[in-house]
Amino acid sequence: MHLPLHIFEPRYRAMVSDAMARDRRIGMVQPRPGLAEKGQAAKPPLFDIGCVGRIADFEVLDDGRTNLVLEGIALFRILRELDVTTAFRQVEAELLPARENETLALAERSSLEMESRRFAEAQGYAVDWDAVTRLDDEALVNGIAQIAPFDTAAKQALLEAPDLSARAELIVQLMQFFGRHDGEERVTL
User: Which residues contact 68 (CB under 8 A, 6 or more apart)?
Assistant: First the structure.
């Protein structure tokens, strides 16, 4: 998938500058909930699985901020965090095997589209459903996983799902859960 990003923090500006001078690739990994959310850790612990992306497009603004589009390439597993002097964190990681040409069974696709319609209506989202029906299974599942308003733990579970079918089923379950509990305090672990 493609992820638009607005880079303004000095450490991320430095990271983008470094990536542009090298291979235009950066890793994205979420901090684990807890200390990071309370602002109590300068270097909050990270999830083990992240995604490496290639800067596909960028625009440097007059004040030094950058707008860029990051194109997801592959998942990775962190082996260890490196002790570096850069403003941004760096890790040693292994790329995970690519999963290509995955498709959903007709019933899985139907269930996903049906639950997506219910969820979108409940959230008040305007969706071009004709365009949705033209998406291939992978674009549909990964697109929903990227834009759905789920919490950090849910997003991480989607990233770590073993295959497209498991990710689609988890999306359906999350939409049902978050749709029923809208506005309430909720935790997914």
Answer: 4, 5, 7, 16, 55, 56, 57, 58, 59
